[in-house]
Amino acid sequence: MKSANDTQIPEFLLLRFSEEAEQQTLMLGLFLTMYLITVFGNLLIILAVSSDSHLQMPMYFFLSNLSFGDICFTTTTIPKMLVNIQTHSKVITYKGCITQVYFSILFAALDVFLLTSMAYDRFVAICHPLHYMVIMNSRLCGLLVLVSWILSALYSLIQCLMLLQLSFCTNVEIPHYFCELSEVLKLACSDTFLNNMVIYFESLLLGGGSLFGILYSYSKIVSSIRRISSSQGKYKAFSTCASHLSVVSLFYCSALGVYLSSAAPQSSRSNTIASVLYSVVTPMLNPFIYSLRNKDIKKVLTTFIVMRTTKI
Fold first, then answer.
1. What is the pTM of this model?
2. Which of 38, 195, 229, 292 has the greatest CB tally within 10 Å of its CB?
3. What is the C-alpha separation between 293 and 289, in angstroms, rounded?
4. Which CATH superfamily includes the segment(s) 4-311?
5. Nearest CA to 208 among 73, 112, 103?
6. CA–CA dist 100, 94 (Å, integer)
7. Which residues contact 141 (CB under 8 A, 6 or more apart)?
8. Domain boundaries, the chain
């Protein structure tokens, strides 16, 4: 059987969720709404942080970068799906598919690194409050974000370069709404053992290492909170971590769902559902989690929206 690379097959087919016209219309409206909420909500967070001097702090600096990453993450996949639904097409070009793989991995990895940096920020704020501004200076924060971008780009580049070495069979149907790496690898005719080993090793190093750093930070945070004598002080200390902890739980639980469902046999549908939680629902909920549980952001957003509405 000839491979896609030998026959120069120029495209893949994204099968999405359903072929029924009514469900297609429902999905178009649902995903368009979620995408607009995601972009608008995260953009508000970025504008609020950049426009208010009270939010010029490390925690909000990382948050604005996380919001930017979430906007880019969803923009990598959802617009193409919406266009395909609207035009009744399933086609994505080979180059477009590789591009989706690259940027979806990049921004997913970026989220992991930023969430880890935010956990370290909370660790310093609660365990070393007197030295917080000295330790979490602008240079360190900028360096953490820069390293996060570099490592994410390298991780994604390695995966895509290895993917480009594979030959693909004439079966080009991807049972997903975007080109997820694990689904694309299943279509390869050539041996993918090395690709899978690199994925598992780097996922363990990236995801496991970051999760260990987050759990270690929170173990120290819990120990410090327990030593606080007043219940009000304990509540105040914990409330500063509640939003980040909620986002971490949502992100890692949905990502774990993707990993487990992709490892299970005949799991295309469950993998797709898990991926929706991980790549669409989580970025959409992040602004709500931070704005509803954070008085500073809630106040700035309210003022910002009122001012814009009044000008209009």
1. 0.88
2. 38
3. 6
4. Rhodopsin 7-helix transmembrane proteins (1.20.1070.10)
5. 112
6. 10
7. 58, 61, 62, 117
8. 4-311
